[in-house]
Amino acid sequence: MSGQVLQSHERESFARDGWVVTNLLDADQTARLRQWVGDVQAWSDAGGWMNHYELTQHGPRRCRTEYFTPYHVGLQQLLCTGTMIAAASELLGEQAVLYKEKINYKLAGGAGWEPHQDAPAYPFIESHISCMIAVDDATTENGCLDVVSGMHHELIETDERGCIPEAVAATLQWQPAPLRAGQTMWFHSRTPHRSGDNRSTRDRRAIYPTYNAAREGDLRDEYYATKRAELDRIASGERVQISLIDDFRGIPVPR
Ligand SMILES: O=C(O)CCC(=O)C(=O)O
Question: 135 CB less than 6 Å from ligand 1?
Fold first, then answer.
C-alpha cells in the first residue's frame, strides 16, 4: 500500500474507532457529484437500476437508487477508480473492488434507519468496508448517521429484523457524525450505526459504496441477483424492505 491517499492519523482513527471522516473531494468535485446525483434522481424506473420508494408526510418519495454505476460514467469513475477505491484499499489493507452502491436520498420527511451493523446484510463476503459520501450537508436535523466507536471487532446478536436489539442499542454510546457536502465517512462493516428521520425541510442525499477485498472475488453480480430475487419474494409489510435486513423505517407506498 502506498498510503498516499489517507493520512496516517486517518488510518489510525479508523483502526481504533471503526469509522473516520475524510476530505477526499474538493469544491469542484463536490459540485460535479451533486450534478451527477441529480442526473440519477431524474431517471425513471425504466432501466436496469433499482429505484425504491417510501411514503412520507409529503406523499410518495424516492428513498433509494442502487445499481447505478453501469449507467452513469461519472459516478462509475468516481466509485471504481482513483481516490475512493485507493482509500478503500488502504483501510482494508489490500486491493478493494466495488461490491455494491446506493444513493439514499432521505428527502425532507424521509425515514431513518434502525441501529444495525452492515455485516449481516452482506452474506457473501468477509472483508468489506463502506463509506457515506455526503451529497448534501448531513446534520442532526436531517438525519446524519450516529455511530458507536470501538465496537467493530464483534458481531452483535441481532433481533428478528436483523438489527441490534433495542435493549442492547440502549447501552451503546451513540455519537452523531454530521458531514458537510463532499465529505466522506468510512465505516467498518461491523460499526454499529443508525440514523434519524429527516425532520427538516432540506434533503439529505448521500452515496454509499461498499467495497470488498478483491482477493474474495468480484461478487457484485451474485449480490444483486440474490437481492433482486429476495426483494421480489418478500411481500411488503408495514415497512419498506430495501435491504437484506429490515433496517429501514420507511413506510411502503400503497399500490
Ligand atoms: O442513510 C442513512 O441514513 C443510513 C443508511 C444505512 O444505514 C443503510 O443504508 O444501511
Answer: no
Domain boundaries, the chain: 8-233
205 CB near ligand 1 (under 6 Å): no
Domain 8-233 CATH superfamily: q2cbj1_9rhob like domain (2.60.120.620)
Q: pLDDT digits over 209-223, tens only?
A: 999 999 999 999 999
Q: 185 Cβ partners below 8 Å, 6+ apart?
A: 19, 20, 21, 22, 131, 132, 134, 145, 177, 179
**Cβ of residue 61 lying under 6 Å from some atom of ligand 1:** no
**pTM of this structure:** 0.95
Residue of 25, 23, 105, 32 whose CA lies nearest to 72: 32
**Tens-digit pLDDT profile for residues 126-167:** 889 999 999 999 999 999 999 999 999 999 999 988 999 999
Looking at ligand 1, which atom is closest to the CA of residue 112? 3
